[in-house]
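RETRY 2/3 - previous attempt timed out on the joint model. Re-submitting the same 754-residue input unchanged.
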Amino acid sequence: MTLRIGLMSFTAAAALALAGAAAAEECGTITLGAAISLTGKYATNGYHTQNGYEFAIRKIAEAGGVKVGDKCYNFKVIYYDDESKGDRGATLAERLINQDGVQYMLGPYSSGLTAAIAPVTEKYKIPMVEAEGASRSLFNKGYRYLFAVLSTSEQYLASAVDLAALMAEKSGKSPSDVKVAVAVENDPFSLDVRAGVIEDAEGYGMQIVVDEKLPRDLSDMTAILTKVKLVRPDLLVVSGHSKGAATAVRQIAEQGVSVPMIAMTHCEAADIVGNFGEAAEGILCSTQWAETLKYEDPIFGSAANYNEEFKAAFPEYADRAVPYQAAQASAAVLVYKDAFERAGTVDDREAVRDAIAATDMMTFYGPIKFDETGKNIAKPMVLRQIQNGQYNVVAPPEFASHELIWPRP
Amino acid sequence: MSMRKLALYGALLLLTVAAPFLFPAYQTQLATLWLMIIVALTWDMTGGQMGYNSLGNIFFYGTGMYVGAVITITLYFPLAEYTDASRSETFTFTPEMYFTGMVLGTLGAGLFCALSAYAIGPLFFGLRGPYFAIGTLGLAIAAGEIVSNIDILGGGQGISMPVYGGDFEVFKKIIYYVFAAMGVVLIVFLSWFYQTRFGKAINAIRDDEEKAEAMGIHTLRYKLVTWAISAFFVGMAGSISAFQLIHFEPLETAYQTINLGIFMVVCVLLGGKGTLWGPVIGAILFHVFKEVTWNYLLGWQWVALGALIVVIVVFFQDGLMGWLRHRKPEWFGIRVESREARASA
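RETRY 2/3 succeeded.
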């Protein structure tokens, strides 16, 4: 696994070097640092994240690099493997800053790792633009140097609760009759997803009939599903990153759990369509980004264009949906490019931080504008349903391209 | 103590004090090195000197983290509000609040862990050999799972400690010197402790517990006190780690059974069980080995670590100190008559 990732990132880096060498001979280099999960339970998403960073770096180099004054720069990233462990991530962040002299950081994968690294970057006053830490708990610590391009996690499955209420009304019931089952990983991200769902469900007066935590290695949830079968909820919510999604889809099919509406996170990252086919039909998936959305920017073109070129650059994604983890990682690099150009300097870290804070831009990934806590408040989440093996946007209404299929087949 | 020994200890102490200035970029790694030395030495108190191989000493590390954090926070703010993930309020600590919390929290963590070792000890010291090892391991794993489900302690989110408001370089030196001071005190204490009657008694327990009992040693009391002392130091180290790491969560950081929980045993095996300096040397070698492989053999680091453990277990069963003692007994004050001398006599 690790070896494969190593080889792939090596090929990606080599391709980048070749592409960049001709165009950017006279360009300088801006070194970014990132500790990401190349092994451990978040390895899949760490890999998507790294690919997203590398793809953006390549595209920016092809477009002439980062133009600061009359000079141009290309990005380079120093990576370390945090093994999906917080204390390791914090140590590596220190190493990047202290020993490798990194002045600007990209985020790791997951809210937990971001929570571990953010205090370090904060102490050194090193800006960190992150794309994979969505928990609200990151944005109430008063951090000045942390910026997140993605929507926060309580919004992930809010649309699913709205849909469940809507469906209840359509079938002549009241939203307060809806029974909700929640099974989440015990980590900052999933707990925040759960908090959002429970808050919204209680707003409708729904009943929470199951509220369980997935076991720590995320490899077995049969006990929870047995309970779900008994209480027959109208909505089942699962959140546990890629591994949790894969376990849930597999075991829901194995145990023949039939729930009219199932909503989860990380469907694309776990490639549940490719891995489980039929079993994934009808599942609702929250996504930060979809290639069908009408966003665009000068570097990547439209969202659809990003999707196509990313697949061309990394052929292993050819037969599957490009995970939004990769797209938002690319968007984070784009934020840096924009900020460096507006700041007009690569050395004055405070000026660059202020430029990042003032970001207000449209990208292929969606609009990006930070509030004073550093989170992106401009971009909404969308909810897609797997219909005939395709991810189709079904909510919120202003983005929906397809009707919801309900109940789930 | 001979002049040579005195000079050697003086030089070591000087190096300890000067290290963060000599290697400013490595201050955090050096602080972690002292943490490794502390946990290795305390593990050896029961594992090497008393013959009780605990796999659960990480329990005191994790508990120390939580106790230190809880004391620091509750001194000034309501804990439930502080650990609420969706809070919008920001809590700030002045340097005075920060240091008061650090001192009281760390002492509290040490005391709490010592008391809990004394309280739960009778349950575990009825177990011998592998049963004791697995029993204590179960304690650490269970504690992690329980804490990860207590919402007021942040649950699976963990706790983010207050961030030190002042200069960060100063902060790193403080953490280093606190760990180093704790380590030096522990070494001095143990070098005295192992010479006392008490020290000899726990050695007797290791060598033959029944005989020790028959000689009138109240073995349970000795075992409890030894474990409690060891827990006291580990708990304090855990609390300082919480301040150092700032953010920690229960399963991977606090009760990290498969990392630090095992590393402390590997350090002792590498350096030599049942010796004073073995765990120290083992911790240094292990830490250096780990940092090097984790940097330059990325992807293979765990394979390298596994290979190291195999090599130790197969070729250096007594650790480096044991191997040295065998090769150079005179360095340890052991007089061996040479064959020639015996033959001529």
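The mean pLDDT of chain A is 90. Closing ticket.
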